[in-house]
Amino acid sequence: MSSILEETKFIMKKYNIRASKRLGQNFLIDENVVETIVDCSNINEEDLVIEIGPGLGTLTSKLVEKAGKVICIELDSKMITILKDRFLLYKNFEVINDDVLKVDLKSLIKEEKANGKIKKAKIVANLPYYITTPIIMKLLEEELDLESITIMIQKEVADRLVAIPGDKNTGAITYTVYYYASSEKILEVPNTSFIPEPEVTSEVIKLNIRKEPVVKTQNKEKLFKIIKCAFMQKRKTLVNSLYNAKILQDKKQGIEILKKLNIDENVRPEELTIEQFENISKNL
Ligand code: SAM
């Protein structure tokens, strides 16, 4: 039996923990996966690490050894008791008992950076799968002062996040991720690496936040509204989707814009690059 598995079982028994399905609790028990996540995050003593959903503290125990400071955000108050006991002696450990979607991460990072020792902020997490997308959108759209985001999520979602716009397997979120970050696949993780086992295969990915967005936009809100509306109806052409979402007054207007930009009038949203979406946005 792996030592992490033994440790996890011991902690769960000691604190009488039953994993909550509702809170997406699948605890990591694979030493190699833990090492890989921590290694590829490149953490040093000048880093603030924000860990979302630390659970029993498996990843946390490695993070506190490397980072200048670790701030954990955990919704389940039972986990808070465990984490406070487990990391009592670590001066660089702090835990916030809240829903990560409600936490003001911008102010948190600003305050930590203001005290001098912290130079960079990084997110590390084995995310609760039921809110993967809202968490990622929050981390990116709030334009936090982050260096990188290393997360374990469902493989199916991971593949969409790391796809390049214009390739297959894209969705509106592909464009958001690409706009703010360059992304890399790190490791595929089987469901046997967790207890309880999730129904899906997982994947660790890393998003390296760009210093400058990949495309200069005239109006970012408008660009992403158009992208979201374009992907709202699967398998429809761009013109049909934008017309149905009332972005276009009539289909003729859309066809004329596409003609002007040398794009086929029957183009589907997933065939477009982010630059092409920006050109369409400018013409609307
Ligand atoms: N990091 C641990 C590990 O790798 O073993 C646990 C990961 S588990 C997949 C997800 C964790 O996120 C759980 O501990 C769960 O309680 C917590 N969680 C669920 N919803 C949350 C939310 N909205 N905000 C913060 N934490 C949340």
Note the topology.
Elements: H1 3-14, E1 27-28, H2 31-40, E2 47-52, H3 60-66, E3 69-74, H4 77-86, E4 93-97, H5 105-114, E5 120-126, H6 132-141, E6 148-154, H7 155-162, H8 172-180, E7 181-189, E8 194-195, E9 202-209, H9 220-230, H10 238-244, H11 251-260, H12 274-282
Parallel strand pairs: 2-3, 2-5, 3-4, 5-6
Antiparallel strand pairs: 1-8, 6-9, 7-9
Short description:
This protein is 40% helix and 18% strand.
Characterization of the model:
It is a single chain. The strands form two sheets. This protein has a seven-stranded mixed β-sheet with strand order 4-3-2-5-6-9-7, sandwiched between helices. A two-stranded antiparallel ribbon has the order 1-8. The chain is built from twelve helices and nine strands. 40% of the residues lie in helices and 18% in strands. The protein is an alpha/beta fold. α6 links the parallel β5 and β6. The protein folds into two domains: 2-209, Vaccinia Virus protein VP39 (Rossmann fold); 220-283, Helicase, Ruva Protein, domain 3 (Orthogonal Bundle), CATH 1.10.8.100. Bound molecules: S-adenosylmethionine. Residues 23-28, 52-55, 58-59, 73-76, 79, 99-101, 126, 128, 131 line the site of S-adenosylmethionine (SAM). S-adenosylmethionine (SAM) is lined by residues 23-28, 52-55, 58-59, 73-76, 79, 99-101, 126, 128, 131.
